[in-house]
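ARCHIVE CARD
Drawer: 12
Card no.: 0347
Subject: one protein chain, sequence and derived structure
Cross-reference: see card 0346
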Amino acid sequence: MLPENNKLILGAYYYLWYGRPTVSLIGGGIWRWGYTNHSNLGEYNSRDEKVISQHINWAKATGIDFFAICSAHIESWDDITLRDYYLKHPQSSELKFCLNYDVIQALNRYQFNIYPSYDFNELYTPTKTKGEKFLEDFEYFTKTYFHLPQYLKIDDKPVVILYNASAFRNVEKYFDKLPPLIFNRRCYLLGRAKSIKKEFSFFMAKSTQRIVKSDFSGIASFISKNL
């Protein structure tokens, strides 16, 4: 990624859900869902000051310039952890951050045996479309995060990564409403997909040519690897 000074910068996806309580039916906590390798910090809580310090120190020592922090629901465990714990930590200003908007969680109220949908015209609740939920979230992000000095910006635009953007449908009228929410400027949106091949096949679809050209500023891909 290239910020204003055209210097290549390196980011890392960062998740604040560790320590989040869950119902006992599925194990009683995020760590109970299972993992392949043991963390050097043990089964830590993302709200622990010492954990936050260590993660920031490790990131700086290895040349990481920013965290892409997962976000999905306003006032969720993850959101409160970011707003009231991570950002209030005295070292949080030492590293830039941006939001990695997890659309799977943000726009899908799960029902068993139903595959997640990314059609912005579909209903999220009986009175609200998924697109309207999307706009509500971005209005909150604008008021809460985008103005912070440590928030990552490119060309003075706040960077937001949109997870699984290749599956988006019927987004035009909702994306067109983003500029007034973002101080009359578009966000610097990065469409994140599970594979570059899949992403480009979506970008070439005739019905999405205009959206890609006008609303997405780049592509963010990722590699899954256990460390």
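Annotation on reverse: The beta strands are 11-14, 66-71, 96-101, 123-125, 128-129, 153-154, 157-163, 188-193, 218-221. The first helix runs from residue 49 to 61.
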